[in-house]
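Quick one - inputs below.
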Amino acid sequence: MSEFLTIQGMKIEVERMGAGSPLLVLLSEEAAYERTSPFIAELAKTHELVMPMAPGFGNSERPDWIGNPDDISYIFLDVVEKLGLKKIPVLGLSFGGWIAAEMAVKDDSFISKLSLVNPFGVKIGGPFDRDIQDIWTLHPSKVAALKYHDVEFGKRDYSNTPEAEITIVARNLESFARFCWDPYMHNPKLKIRLPRIQVPTQFIWGANDGVTSAAYGKAYSQLVPGASFVTVANAGHYPQIEQPAEVAKLVNAFLA
Amino acid sequence: MKAWYFTEMPYPHLPPLDTLSTMRVSLESKHFDPKIGADLYNRYLDEYMIADDAGLNMMVNEHHQTATCLDVAAPLSLAILARQTSKGEICILGNPVANRGDPLRIAEEMAMIDCISRGRLSAGFVRGVPYEIFAANTNPTQTVERLWEGIDLVQKAWTSHDEPFNFEGKFTQRRAVNIWPRPYQDPHPPIWLTGSSDFAGISRAASRGFVFATFLQPYEKVRQLFDAYRGSYRLNGQPGGGGTAFMPLVYVADTESEAEAGMKELLWYMAAKTEPQFRNPPGYVPVEFNVKALQGTFSGRTNAMRAQTLEFQREQGVVMYGTPDQVIAQIKRFYDLVGGFDHLLMMMQAGFLDHERTAQNIRRFAKDVYPAIKDLAGTKPLDLPIAAE
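Output:
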């Protein structure tokens, strides 16, 4: 069930699902798929999921001034405040994980625990190091192989999908590029700010991620004080899509 | 009507095309031999000078990281033409101001070239085709905004002569703007703008008196675009005035079969391969196009016409070839079908078309075709009685 909040003059869609202790979920760039995915359904068995859609995703508006996840983090901090969420766990997936990290470095007082699954957001190496493979420059077939351990999980058939739903998918893809094109998939300031995060933090990483390698994930996790790091076998950049039961189990164990 | 000679300065000496996945963006530069490249640059500039001698005007453009176009800095080739030619007008179409990200440098370059050429310059601006996004690393969702902010700044810089000004835009911030030299033409060179379906942009171009140009589009589409341009004269309460331009591939010869052989060589350009991700970066086209892409019915704007047969392309006006009389008839037919236009931009060299035949094509057109179309009337506002005649 979706509701709309007005935040800084824009409409933000917030979907709620499931019953149990509340969990703030920031979906990935695959949000259109994830909303009805086995992973989310699994989590909804034991949590009331609160899922705000980033500007330009789902049915949320996208004003021109929003340029990156740093901007989005201020919107979502307002969402949290407006909904009166206090001391709740936060789960962020890929692009959503980056936004969650951007929120946590600004204010982690509302967060009980932070779980990040293959988040983008930092650059570890130097200018010539390819920390994050360029999903927009490589051939789509190569990108699929980098993103997924089993490329079947990345295939989407829109032949029977209503146009309104495909429009959301297309707009999500566009918004993702708007926010993450340059600097590519990272905020140069985030790495410096990550030590501000003081809440228990878990990094979950697809062991076969070809876009952001497990080594990148490990290095990212070491920037957050005391964060744990665990890999998921037979999964690429979206372990929540390829190994939904396994990832849900890891999240639930961490939150318990 | 004015006719303009154009080549994209191709580098066709590549391995067999079926062994390459792309000729643009990521084709390794190991395939470029600088000695061959040096010959090509000099040859292509010579051909522009032949066009000037023959009485044609000259147009240049630029692309990056591609074997289809060695002119990676059109102001450089334009500067050479400004100095080495003396008769024809010169046009850059155009400055990729969205991708280049330095509007004032463009304003300076154009003003300098306008002075060197003693006012023969037309200064075009382009948003840039999708492939250009990658070499420039411009956010593909913002190129239209960048284009217009850049044009606004250039135009202001060209026309401010009494005191420096500061500019604090979304993409460019500059202080104490005060360019030297000012353009030779007053208030500034004619401004051209390209487009393929952005009607808001066409209307804006018309209202500001820019020439509107479109390339390699079927006549029905061209008619829609030019009608939108003409219609905007009145809607914007402006005199309009710039006019319209169209670019086909053009080859003229003594016999039709000879011309067809020449045209088939020019089609090398249309067959240039590009990997799919370069044809449609996210956000370059509106969401409704990408809905079609997800449904599998759209793969980037530049693809549709290129896959068609020669006969179809000829019927649509995208290619014009034959004897002089045939080409005159094709131009006049196209002129009537699109409601008239002002500038014929002609890609007359592409691919392996050699120097001798390129020069013949240029001279033949200038001698036997151009005189017959020169007097075709220019663009008129749609709502004036003269347009209805």
